[in-house]
Structures are given as structure tokens and as C-alpha cells.
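ok trying again, last paste got cut off:
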Amino acid sequence: MPLSQQTRQAIGFGAPIPGQSLTTPPKNMPFEQPAQFTDPEKAMEYLMGQLTSQQFMPQLLQMMEAKMPIEAITRSLLFTGFASGKWTVDTAMLIYKPLMLALIAIAHRAGLKDAMIVMPKAVTDKKLADLKNYMTAQEFKMHNSLQEMNQPTIAPEPPPQSGGQGFMRRA
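nice, full thing came through this time. structure:
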């Protein structure tokens, strides 16, 4: 369903101006500051404390029951922690596997036998095929534009002189 003109305008006005991020002072974002957790073990302790709390455990189990892949949950948690300045990308990569295993253990302990671990192969294969088709199309466009650039240009013939009877004739 295409978006209405009013919706497109509203979306456009809410977007940042290109280059706007370059006008804010550096080190303004949480992930640009020193991370709260530099030790992967401390980061895992923090995460497990959050996930097993009475506030978040029901939400976590609902996501798993709704067939949201544990891999997607793991990536979301790690990215959110990075964006909020809890850990660096390096620490997130170090705790990726332990966090995934912990989430699998939580699903198993909760009796969720049908919990999805990773994205279905059909979805990932489709995304790879789409990416391959896109890259092939981009290479084709680039190849055509390079050929057009290498074509010798023929100077256009000058328009015939009309003897001063044109739109802007001399007085």
C-alpha cells in the first residue's frame, strides 16, 4: 500500500538534515564514551541479571513463544547495550555465543521445545539471492555507464542561423 503524500511529507520533515550529525559536539553519544563494562564476564552478569528479572523474563519468554529466533534476540540485546554505552563492539562479539547459549538454556528450562534458534534457511537464502541480484544489477549499470563515458563525443551541429527572425532578434 503506497504512502499518501501527506505521510511522505511528514516523514521527510522529521528526518535529520544531511550532515547534521557533523554539527553536534564529538563524544555526545553514549557509545562514544568509555563503556560501562569492559570485562565480558561482568557484562554477562549484568545481562543475565536483567534478563532473569521479574520485569523482563515474561517478555523474553513471549518473544520466544512467538517464534522470534534466539539469534535475533541476542543481536538486538547486544546492539542495544552497545548503543546505550554498556559495552564496546568487541565485548559484544565476545559475549555473543555465551548469551545465545544462555537464552537457549532459558528456553529449554521454560519448556519451549519449538523455540527457534536461528533464522530459517529460506529467509537467509532469499536475502542472499536478493543481495546477489542487486549487486549484479549495480555492476551492469556501472558497466554501461563506463561504456557511455568511454564513447567518443560528437560535437552537436550548431543550429541554423535564421537571419534575425528568432525569438530574440536584434533591434
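cool. Residues 26-109 form one domain. Residues 7 and 169 are 49 Å apart (CA to CA).
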